[in-house]
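User: Fold this one for me? It's ABC transporter ATP-binding protein.
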Amino acid sequence: MALLEIQRVSRAFDGVLAVNEVSFQMDEGETVSVIGPNGAGKTTLFNLITGLDRPNGGDIRFDGESLIDLPPDAYARRGIARTFQHGRVFGNLSVLDNVLLGAHSRRRATQARSSFLHLARELFYGLFWPSSVRQEEQILRAEAETILAQFGERLLPRLHQPAYSLSYANRRRVEIARALLLKPRLLLLDEP
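Assistant: Here's what I get for ABC transporter ATP-binding protein.
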């Protein structure tokens, strides 16, 4: 079974087709490039695959499950991560904090659905067992630092600097590191 299946997916904006009956599939571990000129619909396709937009027709399946009716955070919980065409970092947050945002859907508190009972349980858990919350945070910080180390001396020495102080290339690297911290099964890089 394919990891990702795109079946006759279309998306139009005010009558203009941005994506027209696109179909393809990807297997786990496969690398695929989507190539085309500006305005060809590449970013729109990524938005459809990650749930930021909905297709007008067709189906998107991940690991055999249709994603069409799911909210965007459900895509991340299933292991789909992405970067954006125009870099998206939080300028006033540190490099480390920007990367840690990528682990949000991996945290214990965000794993299950947000029912009232679940939220009450997590509040109780955080108030009465804060050491386990801190331990989870320490593990995620260590993972983030390991990922940042893969970029050599470009990011690790700037761990606590605000992201706005980085070069454009390093801000893009922070965005990639954030996506990697999700531990994605599918990573989409929009004009890396």
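One thing worth pointing out: The chain has two domains: 4-70, 95-183.
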